[in-house]
Amino acid sequence: MKIRFGIGLGAETAPGQLADIVDRLESSGVDSLWFSELVYTPAVDPTVGMAYALARTTRLKVGTSVAVLPGRHPVLVAKSLASLAALAPKRVLPAFGLRSAIPAEREVFVVPDGKRAEVFDESLKVLRAALIEDSASYAGRFFTVGGAAVAPRPVPPLDIWLGGSSAAAFRRIGALADGWLGSFLTPEEAARGRAAIERAAADAGRRIDADHFGISLAVADAELPEELVAAVRRRRPDVDPGQLVAAGWDALHRQLDAYLEAGLTKFVIRPVGTAPLDGFIDRFVDELVSRQN
C-alpha cells in the first residue's frame, strides 16, 4: 500500500504566503497540500486555494481537509471539482464533512433544522451521480435534479473521501464514500473506525480500497502550547492531549508507526505553535518524505 504524507495549512496561513509554499512543496517531493474550510480566518478558500496551487504546479496534489458539503448545492460542487480535475488530472483530492468545526461558521451552511445528516447523504448521492453520469437525475427530499450534465466528467472518476468519527459517520463512509480522513483519534480508535467502515461497506455491497484510510495529525516543535492543550481537552476530555497531538517529531514518528499498524496509510500533517512555516516545511521534508514508498 502507498504511504503518503501531505501538509495541511492552518487558519493563520495568509493568501500572500501561498505562492512560496506551493513552489517549495512542488520542488521538494511533498505529496500533497490540503486546505481547510475556515471561513472567518485569513486562510484562503479551499476551492480557490486548490485552483491556485494546481495552476503553479505539475506534480503536487491538492485536497480539502475537510470542506463542508451540506449547505452547498452538490451539482455546483461537482462542476467545480470536474473543472479542477480537467485542468489537473489525478491531482484533486476532495474530502467532505458534515459541518464546520467552528460553531460561529455553521450558520452560513444553511440546511433545514435537524436535517443536516439527511441532507449530507442526499448531497453525496447527487454529487457522485453528477460526476459519473452523462445525464444525472435524482429525486429526493431535499434535492431534485433532472438531466444534470456536468462536463467534462473526470476520467477516472474522482474519489470522494469523508471525515467524521461517529458511528453514523462510519456507516455513511462505508455506504457512500471512497475513503476516510479522520482526525482527533488515537491509533486504537482509528483501527476500530476502519473496521466499522469496512463492515458498513460490506453491508452496502461495496468495498473501500485498503489504502484509502487516512488521518489528519498535528505536530508541535516540542512541548504542546497550553492553549492547544486546553482546546484539545475541550474537544476530547477523555484522552490525554499528547496522544492526539505530537509533542515533537520523534513523538510524531511513534504515532505514525501506530497508525500504520492500525491500517492507515495517508497522513495530512499540520503545524501547531508559533514557529515559522518555512522551518516546518523543511523539517517535514527531512522527516517524512523518505517514509513514502
UniProtKB/TrEMBL annotation:
<keyword id="KW-0503">Monooxygenase</keyword>
<keyword id="KW-0560">Oxidoreductase</keyword>
<protein>
    <submittedName>
        <fullName>LLM class F420-dependent oxidoreductase</fullName>
    </submittedName>
</protein>
<dbReference type="InterPro" id="IPR011251">
    <property type="entry name" value="Luciferase-like_dom"/>
</dbReference>
<dbReference type="InterPro" id="IPR050172">
    <property type="entry name" value="SsuD_RutA_monooxygenase"/>
</dbReference>
<dbReference type="GO" id="GO:0046306">
    <property type="term" value="P:alkanesulfonate catabolic process"/>
</dbReference>
<keyword id="KW-0288">FMN</keyword>
<dbReference type="Pfam" id="PF00296">
    <property type="entry name" value="Bac_luciferase"/>
</dbReference>
<keyword id="KW-0285">Flavoprotein</keyword>
<dbReference type="GO" id="GO:0008726">
    <property type="term" value="F:alkanesulfonate monooxygenase activity"/>
</dbReference>
<feature type="domain" description="Luciferase-like">
    <location>
        <begin position="4"/>
        <end position="250"/>
    </location>
</feature>
<dbReference type="InterPro" id="IPR036661">
    <property type="entry name" value="Luciferase-like_sf"/>
</dbReference>
<dbReference type="InterPro" id="IPR022402">
    <property type="entry name" value="F420_OxRdatse_MSMEG3544_pred"/>
</dbReference>
